[in-house]
Amino acid sequence: MSRLAYVASGPYAPPVPAHVLTVTSADGARLHVEVHGPENAPAVVLAHGWTCSTAFWAAQIRALSASHRVIAYDQRGHGRSPASRACGTDALADDLEAVLRATLAPGERAVIAGHSMGGMTVMAAAARPAVREHAAAVLLCSTGSSRLVASATVLPLREGRVRTWLTRRVLGSRAPLGPVTPVALKILKYGTMGPGSAPHMVEACARIVHACPRAVRHAWSEVLDLLDLDHGVRELTVPVEVIVGTADRLTPPVHARSLAAALPNCVGLTELPGLGHMTPVEAPELVTEKIRALAADHIPVTPRASAKPAASAKPAGPGRSVGSAESADTNAVHAEESA
Fold it and tell me: pTM to 2 decimals?
């Protein structure tokens, strides 16, 4: 089986982190966490979506890390975080809590941005103590809280039981995605991106998605199929901005509008004409500026207290941070072989 690498150059090549941590979640799951940018800068936490990884946020990390401390982590089973038997919204919430406690000082506030399943992670954890303590504001990109499969328009069929049944089987397929070929690029672009997406954007997304092990892809598709986080939306009381592409086939704009109507403190809904599901890649500057503005408006300008090392956080090596010797490994990381 081929071993697929992320893009190694250009705006979507993963930047080299200042620090790498392994954070242990409540059930013992180990999470790969990267920290970029100045130590005392305003904090931003990035949670990626289904079949993606920290590499998905490369453009935002590169742009924000000059003036912000950017914390990105791989969801369990994705990227460099090992797979776990536990798959569910409680596990996602546990993982976000663990990352927040391991990387932020007591009382420190951060902007949390979640794309797709990352946004669902934030909704699942909305009532958790760590989110109450650390979330200053939230950006929800291309996400929804329930009825995901029934509303998806990946298949050009009339809404109803037949389309839902077929969509469930397409999204939950155990088939390997294989190498990134021209045909694979066309399929991924149709299903997840807007028709005007540039080839380098499609290439970056394809390499990230194809790197996700098929067993992980299938397991989390079942979680998304049964998703019901409407209660979590009502618990998300901090300022929240919502973004969606009008050509999103996985989480169509109906989800963003429902979120905006149900959120206690929605500060904006942006619908991006012609864009698909991969908004942080398709509209990198806009997503970056939304995060930057939320940080400027809602993070108090106070010196950051020294964060105490969390018991659940372990350095990637014996007291070392990632340096230039490791840059090639970070910028051309190889994914696990598909199961």
Answer: 0.88
